[in-house]
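Hey, quick one: can you model this chain's 3D structure?
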Amino acid sequence: MHLNKIIIRTSTIPLSLNILLKGQLKYLNKKFEIIGISSNGIELNEVKSREGIKTIAVDMERGISPLKDLYSLFKLYVNFIKEKPTVVHSITPKAGLLTMLAGKMAGVPIRMHTFTGLIFPSKTGLLQKLLIKMDQLLCWSATNIYPEGNGVKNDLINYNITSKPLKVLANGNVNGIDLVNFSKSNILEEQLNLLKQELQIAANDFVFVFVGRLVGDKGINELVEAFQKLEIRDQKLGISSEPQISSLQSPISNSQSRIPKLLLVGPLETELDPLKEETLKEIELNKNIISVGFQKDVRPYFAISNALVFPSYREGFPNVVMQAGAMELPSIVSDINGCNEIIVEGENGTIIPVKKAEAITVAMQKLMEDKDYYLSLKNNARPMVQARYEQSVVWNALLDEYNMLIKKLDIKN
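Sure thing. Here's the predicted structure for all 413 residues.
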């Protein structure tokens, strides 16, 4: 153990430290002195309280803002000089660039960045070139680089972002999955029945759930369009779209008489990547689309659902897909980094092309209509997550990495 060694973990917004690294910082703080740095906010106070670590607020812009970025860089540099960390370890793009540059300027010996997702592959033109240059600069100033999954690793190689070694820890995810917490057995049946009643979900409804930010890049425009098409096809098959009187009735055996519902769990963001007007209007007016906003505990919403639909344009290694699997849900995911590693086609879910509403509709319809197919995917969902992404495996792999790097540094010095 290296209790006298300081490790600073950074992210652009505190939500990332609070959600993506939940529990991990407390675990590592038993072995090192962990400090969390992120933009100011309630979530940063939650991290400090729950994880039992010191936190420092340094505001960082998510978008490109040269003057504010320079000020953030200076503030990080000052804090690194003051705290004298042995390791700085960043996640998220902007925090990564600023942390690695400030760490190099301050002479921090071990500068680690985990790429939890790449923005540039989904962009074009001058913006893509700029984002590539920023990631190349990040990697130049880092000493150790960790892609979150092999898809991210391949993109870093294919776009010539760096020639430095790229190491995927454990099976790729930044924090693993707490299988004790994400378990249907932890949710009371009475709680689920009350939630169904509140949301007007009947026992014979087939609920597709999306969990995440409601923005364009998450595929919400295509998802809502796909759901509209699904409803039209079901109506042609003679399915009533009227909700059942009782939400507690027994499920009916004929899957074709199940009514589709779309449950959206997550905040609506209107600044960086807003949804189309027609999408917003459909979410508001369609009684079978239920939008519940941000929820601190997403487990009950998984527990009342039948399948996850996650048609994102880009990810690093999405926690949502692992969480859904742990809660015994099969997933429909787009063919992107992370998603196509967690989901194995035809085993625990299905993989569809990016930005294709028709493909989403077809996949949703198959899950509703083919009972044997659905049950096969469902039965595999939790065991496949358990075998690859159990949380202690990820935490121990990171702890071993810190110890190995610090030991090498001690020998060198």
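One thing worth noting: Residues 239-256 have pLDDT under 50 and may be disordered.
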